[in-house]
Amino acid sequence: MITFSKLGKKGNLGNQLFQIASTIGFAEKFGHEYFFPDWNYSKYFKNWPPAFYKDESFEIVNEKEFNYYEWNLKKGNYDIDGWLQSEKYFNVEKTKKLFQFESFSQDLYAKYSFLFSKKTILVSVRRGDFVRHPHYYQLSYLFYFKSIIENFPDWRDRNIVFTSDDISYCKYHFSFLKNVFFLEDLTPINQLVLGAKCDDFIISNSTFSWWIAWLGEKEKSKIIRPIKIFQGEFAERNNDSDYFPDRWFSFDDSSFGIEKKYFTLYIRGFLYEFLIDIRFFYHKSKKRIKVLIKQLFRGLK
């Protein structure tokens, strides 16, 4: 028997989908049954198994490396703990079947049918705690824009759909596009459902972006992804070579220039990033100054 008892308590939706898919993959590979605790998102998937609990002891098995490696789970009861972020752990057929959306998805498709009046490019932008984070590879607005114009020659004839945890950022940089749509005021599961309906994908280095592309991938889909997910010393300690499937296209935006006709976009973007930098360093400095003042007053007592 195999389970993942921390489901719902270790990361957000994208992380949780990895944990589920990999746990099922282990169960299939080693001939075990599997079960999961109650999960907040289970009602959105029509093939989700009922939760149940075995009154047995489980050996906790922790992930040893970020990259894919061979596990030995042949005999016994196991409670897996880790991030498990590689398609190589999956049983793809069973995962695709498990993550089929419930009937609510049809209502969403009907409500947002205007998005799909043409072929679509889904652009998934991650901001939030990734911005200026020392561990995560930083993607600017230029990565997404260059990904569109360099990889999709017919992009002007498509509907370009943005989803993000910072949609105002996307609007600031991309509202000038005449064929752009922004998914707003939607829950993560609704963003996942609509995003996966699209034809092609440009994704960030977040797990949520990864799953939109993976669930939405069709026979002729093109998926554009960053060159890596981590940076710095953290990248040296965590090998991310198995994170993205080999069939997805790695895109290094630094290898491409930007046409003069998009100069205004470039200047606006530069100023935006400059202001973000000022705010970031101001808040860091403010905290440091407060600490120094406290230390100073302690020394005077």
TrEMBL record:
<keyword id="KW-0328">Glycosyltransferase</keyword>
<dbReference type="Pfam" id="PF01531">
    <property type="entry name" value="Glyco_transf_11"/>
</dbReference>
<protein>
    <submittedName>
        <fullName>Alpha-1,2-fucosyltransferase</fullName>
    </submittedName>
</protein>
<dbReference type="InterPro" id="IPR002516">
    <property type="entry name" value="Glyco_trans_11"/>
</dbReference>
<dbReference type="GO" id="GO:0016020">
    <property type="term" value="C:membrane"/>
</dbReference>
<dbReference type="GO" id="GO:0008107">
    <property type="term" value="F:galactoside 2-alpha-L-fucosyltransferase activity"/>
</dbReference>
<dbReference type="GO" id="GO:0005975">
    <property type="term" value="P:carbohydrate metabolic process"/>
</dbReference>
<keyword id="KW-0808">Transferase</keyword>
